[in-house]
Specification:
Elements: H1 17-43, H2 50-73, H3 97-119, H4 125-152, H5 188-214, H6 218-244, H7 267-291, H8 295-321, H9 334-339
Helix pairs in contact: 1-2, 1-3, 2-4, 3-4, 5-6, 5-7, 6-8, 7-8
Length: 340
């Protein structure tokens, strides 16, 4: 006999700071996704990818509409975000068709992580239900993208490893060693983090290469080339770690960037996209650091975090200088009020 859950009514409950932050952040990210996918879809020729791109675009548009309603119902200012003015559909294609599939895959992969964090910080039931639904549709889209990539032969699978014969326990402190002398083999968790860091950085290389190629502003061009170099350095490092344990490093299928030099997006949009990806990069490298038990891996991740944070600061400063960075909602400045 099933037990019926009691109905919980929530009326006249204002959004909390975590709910405001979650909705505000997702609103900007989904608005950015709409702009990027609209451009990719405009030039897309692959009939197999078209329905998936249409579905992804429809999902993002629906989420923006839902969040906008939350804010309107609360008399909360709608974020400026991004609009049609940030996209130039007349620009030639900057990426080949398969990048549209890669973009859908990566955005939903990162979306599952981000939405999990966001949903766990919400307790107002209508907002929690919204984020729960977002997690479900994001997971579905991720699965569809993976299946299509496998069908097309463009998914680089993670390294294989032999199954252990039995359960074992760590016997010595040498399990943590790695700076000097012999190193133990990488474990499954460490391999997973290394592989997906390589994959994510290949995606970043493609983006920053494309953006630098069409950028006229020298400061921005140099910023994107610097980001490309940081990603390439990470790829080289992680591939070397795999090769040291006789595992093949991953290689890109193609660079997926055309020869176009006409920018399809506003400078603000491009810089904002890099700004958001920097935040994600810091989060995921920190996650990899927390799971790595070899001292040399921890040292590598610590250095990478410092380098990415410095790059993120450069991006932040440039956006502030150009008045492109929309400020998240702030708590009331009580000290200022008391001094007035």
């Amino acid at each position: 006999m099933s037990v019926q859950k009691p109905e919980v009514k929530q009326t006249n409950i204002e959004l909390s700071s975590t709910e405001i932050g979650g909705l505000w952040g997702i609103y900007l990210q989904e608005g950015m996704t709409i702009c990027f996918l609209t451009y990719l879809r405009h030039h897309l020729q692959d009939g197999q990818i078209v329905p998936l791109a249409d579905e992804a675009l429809k999902i993002s548009q629906g989420r923006v509409a839902r969040i906008k309603k939350f804010f309107l119902d609360e008399n909360f200012p709608i974020p400026a975000g991004f609009s049609e003015g940030d996209v130039n559909l007349a620009a030639p294609p900057l990426f080949h068709d398969t990048f549209t599939l890669s973009f859908i895959y990566m955005m939903n992969r990162l979306g599952m992580i981000n939405l999990g964090f966001t949903a766990s910080n919400n307790v107002r039931l209508d907002v929690l239900d919204f984020f729960t639904e977002c997690i479900h549709t994001t997971t579905e889209m991720f699965g569809k993208a993976v299946r299509m990539m496998l069908e097309k032969g463009i998914y680089d699978r993670p390294p294989k490893m032999n199954y252990p014969q039995n359960v074992e326990y760590v016997q010595a402190d040498s399990f943590l060693d790695g700076l000097f002398g012999s190193k133990r083999p990488l474990n499954a968790i460490e391999l997973s983090e290394i592989f997906f860091n390589i994959e994510r950085n290949y995606f970043s290389v493609i983006l920053t290469l494309g953006f630098a190629q069409v950028m006229e502003d020298k400061k921005l061009k140099n910023l994107f080339l610097k980001g490309k170099k940081i990603s390439e350095q990470q790829i080289e490092l992680f591939n070397k770690l795999l090769q040291q344990v006789s595992l093949l490093g991953t290689v890109p299928i193609s660079m997926e960037v055309t020869d176009s030099t006409v920018s399809p997006f506003s400078d603000k949009f491009i810089a904002s996209m890099i700004h958001i990806l920097n935040s994600v990069d810091i989060l995921l490298i920190s996650h990899a650091l927390s799971l790595s038990m070899r001292v040399d891996l921890a040292a590598h991740y610590t250095k990478i975090i410092a380098k990415v944070m410095a790059y993120a600061k450069d991006t932040f400063d440039l956006m502030v200088e150009n008045k492109w960075l929309e400020q998240p909602p702030l708590a009331t400045n009580r000290n200022k009020l008391l001094q007035s």
